[in-house]
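Record type: monomer structure entry
Structure origin: computed from sequence
Chain ID: A
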Amino acid sequence: QVQVVESGGGLVQAGGSLRLSCAASITVGSILTTGWYRQAPGKQLDLVADITSGGNTNYAESVKDRFTISRDGAKNTVWLQMNSLKPEDTAVYYCKITSDWLDSYWGRGTQVTVSS
């Protein structure tokens, strides 16, 4: 059984910062990759950033140099530090865990709203 819980969303002005957290509990296997995705109203779900168990990271072009993904493997926690936020970053942000069995688990999401 895997549980994924996101936190840290909220309302911020353009240029501000937020830090999202994704805490996972996994009882069978281990976490291979953790990714942050976002979905704005009327738009598709897009990858924002992900990080492997080895620490390799990947970012969407739109957030490079503004967002940083990091992890604490011992705590199964991943953070997404978001700086220089823009109104177009407004979305529901979801955390996805991929286990070493290649099963995927999603959190319920956290709302990020950036006002202009």
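Annotation 1: The chain is about 0% helix and 60% strand.
Annotation 2: The radius of gyration is 14 Å.
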